[in-house]
Write a structure and sequence with these properties.
Radius of gyration: 17 Å
Structural class: mainly alpha
Largest sheet: 2 strands, parallel
Order of helices and strands: HHHEHE
Number of helices: 4
Number of strands: 2
Distance between the termini: 36 Å
Mean pLDDT: 90
Strand content: under 5%
Strand order of the largest sheet: 1-2
């Protein structure tokens, strides 16, 4: 893995996105089968899978729990306003998609 020298060379990326240094959100995206990751993210993700072979399943289980928790809050507890705090990369289905599928009037920020 490179040591984060520079900010990448892709002109399509926002300024300040360093593609030469693994980032936890992009590593998680890789485990989930996402497309928003780069070689250093994938390299770190694979090293972690070597140490924890069921890491992909753990990431998927985490996402599944999020879905169950949001559905419960909306369907069972009647919550209609959700504040979604997180630093990850949006992954479908996202909180607003889950909540609004259960109750379209739910507001998610």
């Amino acid at each position: 893995m490179s040591q984060g020298q520079g900010t990448g060379t892709d002109p399509e990326l926002p300024n300040g996105i360093n593609t030469n240094l693994a980032h936890s959100a992009r590593v998680y995206d890789y485990w989930l089968g996402g497309k928003d990751n780069f070689p250093d993210d994938r390299e770190l993700a694979e090293l972690m899978i070597q140490a924890i072979p069921n890491m992909r399943e753990m990431a998927r289980a985490n996402r599944a729990f999020l879905g169950r928790a949001v559905r419960h809050l909306v369907e069972e507890a009647g919550i209609r306003q959700i504040l979604d705090l997180g630093t990850g990369i949006p992954t479908s289905p996202n909180v607003h998609e889950i909540a609004q599928a259960a109750a379209p009037e739910t507001r998610v920020v």
